[in-house]
Amino acid sequence: MADWSTAGSCQYAGGYFPLLALKGGNMGMKIDIPIGMMVSDVVRSFFHKPATRRYPFERKEAPEAFRGKLIWNLEKCTGCQLCIKECPANAIELIIIDRASKRFVMCFHADRCTYCSQCVFNCKFKCLELSHTEWELAALSKEPFTVYYGLASDIEPYLEQAGESEA
């Protein structure tokens, strides 16, 4: 077991500090800590506010350029699938039901996404964006990480068809 003892002194601009040394610790390490500096740090910390916030009770606004959850605008999308081709993580799927009437279903896999925003930069029609307000995406199960965008009348048949193919 390691024991602490006084082990000499250390010079600083105002004089000398006695050193505190840990002897016989892990693998013979010797740690020298000036006692005066240690005590002054402890006393000074009593008069300062904590550096951390009491999250989630005290929240700070995310920066404007923060990359959070992917948002898809169905009205602007043409189904060119450039976002899918450029996604390095294969986190986006676009199912084209009818291109002429703009009926698409987008499947976003948040658990695969690296939030590099490559899809946003390459979208010619600006139908993708990364939200700076929706960024708390933690969950206890895997289901919330797969997000479907599109009309409900288009999503439901797709999910039924996907469920039948898995069974």
Give the helix/strand layout.
Layout lengths: L2 E10 L2 E9 L7 E4 H11 L24 E3 L9 H5 L5 E7 L4 E7 L8 H5 L5 E3 L15 E5 L1 H15 L1
Antiparallel strand pairs: 1-2, 2-3, 4-7, 5-6, 6-8
**Helix segment count?**
4
The name CATH uses for the topology of the largest domain is Alpha-Beta Plaits
Helix/sheet category? alpha+beta
Distance between the termini: 60 Å
Named at the architecture level, the CATH assignment of the largest domain is 2-Layer Sandwich
Strand arrangement, major sheet: 1-2-3
**Approximate shape:** elongated
Helix percentage range: 10-25%
Please report the total strand number as a whole number. 8
What would you report as the Rg, rounded to the nearest angstrom?
28 Å
> What is the number of independent domains?
2
Strand content: 25-35%
Q: Biggest sheet: strands, sense, closure?
A: 3 strands, antiparallel
Instruction: Encode the helix/strand succession as letters.
Output: EEEHEHEEHEEH
Q: Could you tell me the mean pLDDT?
A: 79
Any idea of the CATH class of the largest domain? Alpha Beta
Poorly predicted runs are 1-7
Written description of the protein model:
- This protein is an alpha+beta fold.
- The chain folds into two domains: about 5-45, no CATH class; about 70-165, 2-Layer Sandwich (Alpha-Beta Plaits), CATH 3.30.70.
- The chain is built from four helices and eight strands, in the order E-E-E-H-E-H-E-E-H-E-E-H.
- The protein has helices at about 35-45, 80-85, 120, 150-165; strands at about 5-10, 15-25, 30-35, 70, 90-100, 105-110, 130, 145-150.
- The protein is elongated and about 75 Å long.
- Mean pLDDT is about 80; it is low at about 1-5.
